Amino acid sequence: MSRESALVTADWVEEHLNDPSIVLVEVDEDVEAYDKGHIPGAVKLDWKGDLQDGVRHDFVSKDKLEALLSAKGIGNDDTIVFYGGNNNWFAAYAYWYLKYYGHDNLRLLDGGRKKWELDSRELTTEVQDRPATTYVAKDADESIRAFRDEVIASIGSKNLIDVRSPDEYAGRLLAPAHLPQEQAQIGGHIPTAGNVPWSKAANDDGTFRSDEELKELYAEAGLDDAKDTIAYCRIGERSSHTWFVLKEILGHENVKNYDGSWTEYGALRAVPVALGDEPGVA
Amino acid sequence: MCGAIKGGPSLEGVDVANEAVIQGIVTRDGQPVGNAYVRLLDRTGEFTAEVPTSATGQFRFFAGPGEWTLRTLAPKSISVDNAVTAAKGVVAEVAVAV
User: Fold this and answer.
1) Does A37 touch chain B (CB under 8 A)?
2) What are the residue ranges of helices labelled H in B4-95?
């Protein structure tokens, strides 16, 4: 994978608005954002209502994904271009999730909704109907998803990257600061995890930094190319952003997203936790 | 929207006593800016959070106690920084002009 195969620019999207093989999909934390205005022709996916199971603490199963994409009029051969608010956090999460179920042609719109808005490009409230399809998902690709037991076993051996803000990593905040701080989990991070906030991989307008800047960022943070990597955050969306950078832009081989992330790890009994600004020891 | 209302969004339902709230409104020439992005930077300048403004130009963060910087991006303007101090149980109101 590379920047060219995983990212498209706002100009490219404008030039392809009427291309029937391309489906724009907006995914937001703020589920009302799409309704207030979206890129013409874009389909809405609700990060919670559409992509989370609703009963189990998990994302939707393969058969529910098939029903969802079929109803949204998205076919197996379509190129899906995801974009959204929060600097594409939830769009990157949806990209990772569709990758997990084997969709072939996936892209992220570089800069997401913010770049599009800051450029004063066209937004519409009109929702276009798409005829239903029969979408068939592939079996889950477990090589890009980490679960808690693997994470615990990785302490001190694999690259663990905590992509939350420094204050969350240190335990001074329990959630990103646009959310109330009352949370069930304790503060801190997984021992030996380095802190490379997702935001360091992005420019102010939400676009990704250059390949050279990204390589330097992770090299400086001590990421060992010879080891497998697991990224985590609080609920797995910001770490999808970093997973995207490492796997899809920079082409690292073995990178997993731990979508259970700190809401799960920080609620586990009797697992090691480190507090403060240093990684801590295994 | 005719003219900017004063201060950040309503605090109804917010547990103010246990939060260090930073909130306010973004205006241009006295009018609310509904398509701005406000980011919260920590004492070292590191990104901590970002929110888009509401249709009425308002924004809110749940920060920790200490010194913070708000950096506001809006279409067709350069970014604007505002320093703010947060404390638990206090609502810090910031008026941002772009």
Assistant:
1) no
2) none
Contact (CB, 8 A) for B76 and B40: no
The answer to whether the beta carbons of residues A198 and A238 sit under 8 Å apart is: yes
- What's the confidence (pLDDT) of residue B1? 41
Q: According to the model, what pLDDT value does residue B4 have? A: 60
Assess whether pLDDT exceeds 80 at residue A183.
no
Looking at the complex, report in whole angstroms how far the Cα of residue A168 sits from the nearest Cα belonging to chain B: 9
Q: Strand A159-162 to strand B47-52: parallel, antiparallel, or no bridges (unpaired)?
A: unpaired
CATH placement of domain B16-97: 2.60.40.10
Q: Which of A87, A120, A167 sits opposite B50 (nearest CB)?
A: A87
Burial class (CB in 10 A: 0-12, 13-18, 19+), A180: middle
Domain coordinates of chain B in residue numbers? Answer: 16-97
Domains within chain A, CATH numbers bracketed: 3-140 (3.40.250.10), 143-265 (3.40.250.10)
Question: What ipTM was reported for this prediction?
Answer: 0.78
Residue B38 contacts A, CB cutoff 8 Å? no
SS (H, E, C) B37-62: EEEEECCCCCEEEEEECCCCCEEEEE
Cβ-defined contact of B48 to A181 (cutoff 8 Å): no
B45-85 pLDDT, tens digit each: 999 999 999 999 999 999 999 999 999 999 888 899 999 99
Residues A59-108: tens digit of each pLDDT = 999 999 999 999 999 999 999 999 999 899 999 999 999 999 999 999 99
Per-position b or e across A87-120, b if 16+ CB within 10 A of its CB:
bbbbbbbbbbbbbbbebeebbbbbbbbbbbbbee
Q: Is A233 a catalytic residue?
A: yes
Which of A153-162, A176-185, A199-208, A261-270 is least confident?
A176-185
Question: If you count residue pairs, one on A and one on B, with CB atoms under 8 Å apart, how many are there?
Answer: 73
